[in-house]
From TrEMBL:
<feature type="binding site">
    <location>
        <begin position="317"/>
        <end position="320"/>
    </location>
    <ligand>
        <name>GTP 2</name>
    </ligand>
</feature>
<dbReference type="Pfam" id="PF14714">
    <property type="entry name" value="KH_dom-like"/>
</dbReference>
<feature type="domain" description="EngA-type G">
    <location>
        <begin position="199"/>
        <end position="372"/>
    </location>
</feature>
<feature type="domain" description="EngA-type G">
    <location>
        <begin position="24"/>
        <end position="187"/>
    </location>
</feature>
<dbReference type="GO" id="GO:0042254">
    <property type="term" value="P:ribosome biogenesis"/>
</dbReference>
<comment type="function">
    <text>GTPase that plays an essential role in the late steps of ribosome biogenesis.</text>
</comment>
<dbReference type="InterPro" id="IPR005225">
    <property type="entry name" value="Small_GTP-bd"/>
</dbReference>
<comment type="similarity">
    <text>Belongs to the TRAFAC class TrmE-Era-EngA-EngB-Septin-like GTPase superfamily. EngA (Der) GTPase family.</text>
</comment>
<feature type="binding site">
    <location>
        <begin position="139"/>
        <end position="142"/>
    </location>
    <ligand>
        <name>GTP 1</name>
    </ligand>
</feature>
<dbReference type="GO" id="GO:0005525">
    <property type="term" value="F:GTP binding"/>
</dbReference>
<feature type="binding site">
    <location>
        <begin position="30"/>
        <end position="37"/>
    </location>
    <ligand>
        <name>GTP 1</name>
    </ligand>
</feature>
<dbReference type="GO" id="GO:0043022">
    <property type="term" value="F:ribosome binding"/>
</dbReference>
<keyword id="KW-0547">Nucleotide-binding</keyword>
<feature type="binding site">
    <location>
        <begin position="252"/>
        <end position="256"/>
    </location>
    <ligand>
        <name>GTP 2</name>
    </ligand>
</feature>
<dbReference type="InterPro" id="IPR031166">
    <property type="entry name" value="G_ENGA"/>
</dbReference>
<dbReference type="InterPro" id="IPR016484">
    <property type="entry name" value="GTPase_Der"/>
</dbReference>
<dbReference type="Pfam" id="PF01926">
    <property type="entry name" value="MMR_HSR1"/>
</dbReference>
Length: 455
């Protein structure tokens, strides 16, 4: 099955059925041949390992509903990534990254008879950095004589290795008990569950564009709470601001209010602050001084927000200073220098007069909605099928690469994985992105597309 893939969307769709509520997701990762599929089949029972047909695509299922001790969960088998032409190390790493992204807990399978390899160690690093619960499965411990092989895997630093024989069933019950302990009752935010607390906004922009003025304008006297958790009471890091009837968390406002008068390295510290604020935020409001020519630093900050994968709103400030002529040149500058973020909602504001402050919240909300959009796999593939039929990739060296299948691997921001029969040129990828936006919206959000080539 060359097109088999790791379909988080299918996981997601399954969850909404029958009012059971979303199920927590368990991913099984590990190198090829360590016994992942054997383990998955052991857990779900072979009878459920059906092959599913989708329009135009036949592939093996990769996610199953499973239960143990009266609890239900989704089991995701990442085995489909193995034939990736990226090579084994890279594909195992990609597998682990996906699992980390998607799963609420991970079973990491190691072949105890082989011991920990460099690839295993690399996966451990990824898993540890992500902080998701991990259960270490020391597989192929078929009898008591190989228990020592499992013990050796303490060296991975993932806690107790659970000796298992996926083939014969030995030890799987004990391991599943440990899994249930690690697995939360409900899935995490990655699956679109309601996000707790106020939405996090980063207000960014180069010095003097009007960030602190805007902050004062929106906070006014209405600043209700000061969030002192991350800083001290006197130097709050974030501020809760009431806007449009909702509370928003403006992150890292201390960095805005504390005017650092450094000549040397000021740009560097400003970039650090921007990067840190973006890291904590869901949506970036990039402030630009509309009265001046767009600076390279403006476009750099926009790129930082896009690269950080945040929803983006662009606010052109100091609108009160604009005359007809400047307005004309501004539009030309935007067309020339900001084409790559044409999808970002735009507001023309004045922090001084308060002009169009009421447009800020709807723009932020639209951007967040785009950021969280999920396209069901069926719709996506119907769309891709039509796109490929109407606009095939140009023939290169006698071959014509085709998109075989696609899935949306995640949201916040939307991430797509396309499986293709050959390398897709940058121009064609951009075309696909453009068409995706035309079809599904995605206002205010970057979208990420990765292509996996199948021979
Ligand atoms: P995957 O590539 O990680 O999915 O590995 P598979 O599940 O396809 O297993 C790879 C090989 O290891 C197969 O030949 C399995 O029969 C074998 N295998 C899997 N689990 C065990 C086990 O617990 N004991 C033994 N002896 N062999 C196993
Ligand atoms: P920051 O460095 O981005 O925080 O920028 P400030 O908020 O300190 O603003 C820099 C300067 O621009 C100050 O002199 C502000 O009074 C002025 N300013 C900010 N917003 C506006 C605006 O909308 N219109 C006008 N005319 N001036 C503004």
């Amino acid at each position: 099955a060359a097109e088999e893939g790791f379909d988080l969307d299918e996981v997601n769709e399954g969850l909404d059925e029958a009012g059971h509520g979303p199920l927590p997701v368990l991913a099984v990762v590990g190198r090829p041949n360590v016994g992942k599929s054997t383990l998955v089949n052991r857990i779900i029972g072979r009878r459920e390992a059906v092959v599913e047909d989708r329009p135009g695509v036949t592939r093996d299922r990769v996610s199953y509903e499973a239960h143990w001790s009266g609890r239900r969960f989704k089991l995701v088998d990442t085995g489909g990534w193995e034939q990736d032409v990226l090579g084994i190390d890279a594909s195992v790493a990609a597998q682990a990254e996906f699992a980390i992204e998607a799963a609420d807990a991970v079973v990491f399978v190691v072949d105890a008879t082989v011991g920990a390899t460099d690839t295993d160690e690399a996966v451990v690093k990824l898993l540890r950095r992500a902080g998701k619960p991990v259960v270490l499965c020391a597989n192929k411990v078929d009898g008591p004589s190989s228990e020592a092989d499992a013990t050796a895997l303490w060296s991975l630093g993932l806690g107790e290795p659970h000796p298992v024989s996926a083939l014969h069933g030995r030890g799987t019950g004990d391991m599943l008990d440990a899994v249930l302990e690690a697995l939360p009752e409900a899935p995490a935010q990655t699956f679109g569950a309601t996000v707790g607390g106020p939405r996090r906004v980063a207000l960014v922009g180069r010095p003097n564009v009007g960030k602190s003025s805007l902050l004062n304008q929106v906070a006014g006297e209405e600043r209700v709470v000061v969030d002192a958790t991350a800083g001290t009471t006197r130097d709050p890091v974030d501020e809760m601001i009431e806007l449009g009837g909702k509370t928003w968390k403006f992150v890292d406002t201390a960095g805005i209010r504390r005017r650092v008068h450094l000549t040397e390295g000021a740009d560097f510290y400003a970039s650090l602050r921007t990067a840190a604020a973006l890291e904590k935020a869901e949506v970036a409001v990039v402030l630009i001084d509309a009265s001046e020519s767009l600076a390279e630093q403006d476009t750099r900050i926009i790129s930082m927000a896009v690269e950080a994968g945040r929803a983006v709103v662009i606010a052109y400030n100091k609108w009160d200073l604009l005359d007809e002529e400047r307005r004309y040149y501004l539009e030309r500058e935007i067309e020339k220098d900001l084409v790559q973020v044409k999808w970002a909602p735009r507001v023309n504001v004045s922090a001084r007069t308060g002009r169009h402050m009421d447009k800020l919240v709807p723009a932020i909300e639209n951007a967040l909605a785009g950021w969280e959009t999920r396209v069901p796999t069926g719709r996506l593939n119907a769309f891709l099928g039509e796109l490929v039929a109407a606009n095939p990739h140009p023939i290169r060296g006698g071959k014509q690469p085709r998109i075989l299948f696609g899935t949306q691997a995640g949201t916040r921001p939307p991430r797509f994985v396309l499986f293709a029969s050959g390398f897709l040129e940058a121009g064609y990828r951009r075309f696909v992105e453009r068409r995706l936006r035309e079809e599904f919206g995605f206002e205010g959000t970057p979208i990420q597309i990765s292509v996996r080539v199948r021979e």
